[in-house]
Design a protein that fits this description.
Elements lengths: L12 H8 L15 H12 L4 E5 L4 E4 L4 H4 L10 H4 L4 H12 L4 E11 L4 E14 L5 E10 L1 H37 L4 H22 L6 E3 H9 L9 E4 L4 E3 H20 L9 E8 L7 E8 L12 H14 L1 E8 L2 E8 L3
Parallel strand pairs: 7-9
Antiparallel strand pairs: 1-2, 1-5, 3-4, 4-5, 6-8, 9-10, 10-12, 11-12
Helix pairs in contact: 6-7, 7-8, 7-9, 8-9, 9-10
Length: about 350
């Protein structure tokens, strides 16, 4: 189909379309009368495997090679139509750049954002491209060449990496602050060096367990079942001693960390002084949303069957942690009640 037009010898779908179009009805005129600069520029464009579009004359008529078809997506046929019409949805943005090229000034831009419609809906895309003037031997500017590569996937990957880096920095800063607070408060709580080391180690392990749940991908939540299982696992507690009941709720990272620390304190205390210090005591852990559809988290911890419970004379760091820190993380209240029959602990949403 293109053998009688040697400058279309590189072939391809675009060359075929160009050879078959009725150019005589346009300003560019009949194909047999085209100037050599147009034919030579088209030959270079069509033989290139890099996406290129030639914009010609005052009407900005569009030619492009096969590689450029990917840039167009599902847009209607672009060859023979004004470039301003082909990219009408983005023309307000790219027109000043095209005008520069048509006035003899080249432009090269990397990762340029454009809102385009090429598949039936608007999308944010990114392109690295160059608009270069096409000049005749006499110095007349006849058109411009658009050489382009889409960089949307690369830009989106970079954006995701930046978000991840910011998230990791934020997490590390918060974690270091929390660890520092735990270390400081643990040392102030008193005890032998061995007791302090054990308490600090257990608290760090509680944090590490939740971090293991949060470390994959962009995870910023952990489910309550997993948090409880992770808190119980290191203590080899016999089956049936701890009974759990609640839906598969997910907690945000600050809440998951706070609950993990609280459970570590409660279990450690139960093993030392509470219902897990003998062979018969049990613990019931129930949780839910306070009201269906409400975001308020509710948790009830109840120990039974252990030694007689008395309220301590002085609240240690563990007691402060499971009340103040947890209340702050959940935006509600967290309360320990020293009932004679067994310690009770509740997390409740803020009233109102």
């Amino acid at each position: 189909m293109t053998t009688h037009h040697p400058f279309l010898a590189c072939g391809g779908d675009s060359a075929k379309i160009i050879s078959q179009m009725d150019w005589a009805s346009t300003r560019v005129g009949d194909i047999k009368d085209w100037p050599e600069v147009l034919k030579t520029t088209l030959a270079l464009m069509l033989c290139s495997s890099f996406p290129k579009a030639l914009v010609w004359g005052k009407d900005l008529l569009t030619f492009h090679n096969d590689a450029f078809r990917v840039i167009l997506g599902d847009k209607p046929l672009a060859i023979g139509r004004p470039f301003s019409e082909v990219w009408s949805e983005a023309w307000e943005t790219i027109e000043p750049i095209a005008v520069k090229a048509m006035n003899g000034q080249s432009t090269f831009i990397e990762n340029f954002p454009l809102t385009i419609n090429r598949n039936g809906s608007s999308e944010q895309a990114y392109f690295t491209f160059s608009y270069s003037p096409v000049i005749s031997a006499e110095g007349e500017i006849l058109g411009m060449m658009d050489t382009v590569v889409e960089t949307t996937l690369a830009v989106q990957a970079q954006q995701r990496a930046e978000i991840l880096n910011r998230e990791l920095t934020h997490r590390m800063r918060n974690m270091l602050t929390l660890v520092g607070s735990i270390a400081s408060q643990t040392l102030r709580s008193g005890g032998t060096p061995q007791e302090l080391e054990t308490a600090f180690s257990q608290r760090l392990q509680a944090l590490a367990s939740v971090q293991d749940m949060l470390k994959t991908g962009h995870a910023t939540e952990a489910d309550v079942h997993s948090i409880i299982a992770s808190a119980v696992a290191p203590h080899a507690i016999a089956e049936g001693r701890i009974n759990t009941e609640g839906p598969n709720l997910h907690l945000l990272e600050p809440q998951a960390l706070a609950l993990s620390l609280a459970l570590n304190e409660l279990i450690t205390n139960a093993i030392k002084y509470g219902s897990l210090s003998n062979d018969t005591g049990t613990i019931s852990i129930r949780w839910n949303k306070e009201i269906p559809g409400d975001n308020g988290f509710y948790l009830h911890w109840q120990e039974t069957g252990g030694p007689l419970v008395t309220q301590p004379i002085k609240a240690g760091f563990g007691s402060r942690l499971i009340q103040r820190h947890v209340a702050s993380a959940f935006g509600g209240s967290a309360q320990v009640t020293y009932e004679a029959g067994g310690l009770r602990y509740e997390i409740k949403p803020a009233e109102g």
